[in-house]
Amino acid sequence: MREMVKGNVAIAEAALRAGLQFYAGYPITPQTEVMEYLSGRMPQLDRVFIQSESELAAINMIYGASATGIRSMTSSSGPGMALKQEGISYMCRMQLPCVVLNVTRWGCGLGSLNTAQTDYLRDTRGGGQGGYRTIVLAPNSVQESVDIMQYAFKLAEKYRNPLVIMSEANLGQMREPCEMPEFGPLPSPYVWSLDGTGKNGNNGSWNMAEDVEEDLTGKWLLMKENEQRWVNYRTDDAEFIFVAFGLPSRAVMDAIDVLRGKGEKVGLIRPVSLWPFPEKAFQKFSTEVKAFISVEGTDLGQMIEDVALASKKYINRPVYLLSSGQVLPTVRKICEVYKEIKENHRKAVF
Questions:
Q1: Stretch 108-128: mean pLDDT, rounded?
Q2: pLDDT of 244-254, one tens digit each?
Q3: β-strand partners of 119
Q4: CA-based, 20 to 30 A from 151: which of 239, 262, 302, 320?
């Protein structure tokens, strides 16, 4: 049955139904409702919730819990995510899975509570040292936040790698009808997990030479090849194609419907995976496509770099930018920018 649920609460409950066993986190708006909800819900299910003394402590608690084979998650927003980067880097190096939820807010440093997508480059490039990557998934509705959580843990465990879900301030705070799945089974002990008994065949420790030191680059290339996810909207005969994820993509879809009503041939590629970026989505387009338009909740444009690389690789068309900063782009603004582009009154970025 569908119920009206706030985005942060919905994704927290979805994590429990996906088998979350251990959560550690530290309060920071606009994601505090995630841990507030879990603080009351997890003890009811005989699962472990910890409010840590800092974001640094939280990610390292996740590190330890994951090493013992416990399905684990932490959440934060931009400044807190910055503090977690060394721990995430370590977990990538040690091949330990977890889910990290980032409810993004706008601005440098502490920033503000306004919605934005300004963590894009950090999260998709690996925010700590070491040249690693994490799969990054971006929902555009409360229901999709729930749906994504259902396979996020499985995807993290498939590759033994942290996975980031990039939500947004407005998405975490808004209420929408959604349907929750049933509770799934808790995971069985993994053969690589540490329990101090040696029952899993690891004698209480990892063989670093055979396990952790394997070809990590090869694994990340495999993730890049196999885990590209996207949704196309009215692209079959499109001459101008918007690219947008998260909440801006919903405004773009409305704008496309308006423009289609006026006879304009426009469409949308909506990345669901931000890394790996769905460059394969650009393969199918013919020479009829004249340009791509990146629509983002950033100040100077971030995703546009990936759009440009994909365009260059497959079709080599100019790429334009509509960056809305700390507010969601409006349908009117999207239509105005499209008109400027079509009439050659706006300069391409790439």
A1: 93
A2: 999 999 999 99
A3: none
A4: 302
- Closest CA relative to residue 315, chosen from 231, 223, 239, 228: 239
Q: Which of these, 86, 103, 98, lies nearest to 138 by C-alpha position?
A: 103
CA distances from 89 to 47, 127, 160 (A): 26, 8, 13
3-state SS assignment for residue 150: helix
Enumerate residues 6+ apart whose C-beta is below 8 A from 213: none
Cis peptide preceding 97, ω within 30 of 0:
no
- State pTM to two decimals: 0.94
- Report the amino acid identity of residue 289: V
- Distance between CA 94 and CA 22 in Å, rounded? 19
CA–CA separation, 61 vs 38, rounded Å? 16
Whole-angstrom distance, CA of residue 12 vs CA of residue 66? 18
Q: Which two tokens stand for residue 188?
A: 């069985």
Q: Band of the pLDDT at 205, cuts 50, 70, 90?
A: low
Pairing state between β 240-243 and 266-271: parallel
